[in-house]
Amino acid sequence: MKLEGKVALVTGASRGIGFEIAKIFSENGAKVVLTSKNSRQLEDSANQLTNTTSVPADIRKEEEVKQVVKKTIEIFGKLDILVNNAGVFPKIKQLHEISELEWNDVLDVNLTGQFRFTKFAIPYLQKTSGTIINISSDAGLKAYEGFNADAYSATKAALIVLTKCWALEYAKDKIRVNCICPGVVDTDMTKPFLITQKDREFMNNDHPLGRIGAPEEVAKSVLFLACEDSSWTTGAILAVDGGQSTK
Ligand SMILES: NC(=O)c1ccc[n+]([C@@H]2O[C@H](COP(=O)([O-])OP(=O)(O)OC[C@H]3O[C@@H](n4cnc5c(N)ncnc54)[C@H](OP(=O)(O)O)[C@@H]3O)[C@@H](O)[C@H]2O)c1
């Protein structure tokens, strides 16, 4: 019970990595607000867990994000942990083939969305000396041959430097800010790249540990950064990627 008495807000929690983060938080005694865009799936997911509630919102809409934070406070009275996890992955195209609209759509969710949640959460995290965990990606750490998702890589790299900026900016309030960079994890996001057995073998072999990751493995690292076990850790960028980014 590493999070007894804590209140957490997890974005993109309806499925994939975000759901597993909400699950491990609730199993460790936290009260958890799950948020994402699709309200039905979100509610179903929250209903599978104890001590949780769901508040749907489109991360691209400032007023909806503000309401999620407000409702978190109304329901649970405070906020200790924010996990900026929501994200989208674009169609694979080279830079010269993408429109400005496609570029901005990715930035709106993966970068400005994290700004929105963080901005509204900070005043409450200042009261609790809380913590923020940003979910970036290996794609924010380096370039990969044939990856061709530049808007995505740009948002994930930005989140890495923002983790350090926010860690410095809010250290005086004792808010810790850390970041996780997963490699390829088996979720809806990576389904299009794992269709055939051959795809899966390729992805497995691309990771030095010989396999892609499970969302639960990312969630365990998020738990570490959310709880007292990491009490002296801030501004850290943790690769949870089977060694992929070391190559
Ligand atoms: N899977 C990987 O291999 C991998 C690797 C590195 C980093 N990551 C990062 O890990 C995070 C989670 O990825 P995942 O694989 O779990 O993805 P996923 O299964 O596709 O889930 C994405 C989540 O983000 C939410 N979301 C998307 N657009 C949104 C919007 N406009 N407003 C609110 N919520 C929105 C989705 O909500 P709805 O259900 O409502 O659509 C869903 O809950 C992402 O930031 C991703 O970039 C993933």
List the defining traits of the structure above.
43% helix; 247 residues; 7-stranded parallel beta sheet; Rossmann fold; alpha/beta; globular; binds NADP nicotinamide-adenine-dinucleotide phosphate; 7 helices
Overview of this protein structure:
The protein has about 250 residues and is an alpha/beta fold. The protein is built from seven helices and seven strands; from the N terminus they run E-H-E-H-E-H-E-H-E-H-E-H-H-E. The chain has helices spanning about 15-25, 40-45, 60-75, 100-130, 150-170, 195-205, 215-225; strands spanning about 5-10, 30-35, 50-55, 80-85, 130-135, 175-180, 235-240. It has a seven-stranded parallel β-sheet with strand order 3-2-1-4-5-6-7, sandwiched between helices. Strand 4, helix 4 (about 100-130) and strand 5 (about 130-135) form a beta-alpha-beta unit. The longest helix has 29 residues, at about 100-130. About 45% of the residues are buried. Bound molecules: NADP nicotinamide-adenine-dinucleotide phosphate (NAP). NADP nicotinamide-adenine-dinucleotide phosphate binds near residues 14, 37, 109 and 190.
Sheet with the most strands? 7 strands, parallel
CATH class descriptor:
Alpha Beta
**What ligand molecules are bound, each kind once?**
NADP nicotinamide-adenine-dinucleotide phosphate
- Strands in their spatial order, largest beta sheet: 3-2-1-4-5-6-7
Radius of gyration: 17 Å
**Would you count the extended β strands for me?**
7
Quick gist of this model?
This protein has helices spanning 16-27, 39-47, 62-76, 100-128, 150-169, 197-205, 215-226, and strands at residues 7-11, 31-35, 52-54, 81-84, 131-135, 176-182, 237-240.
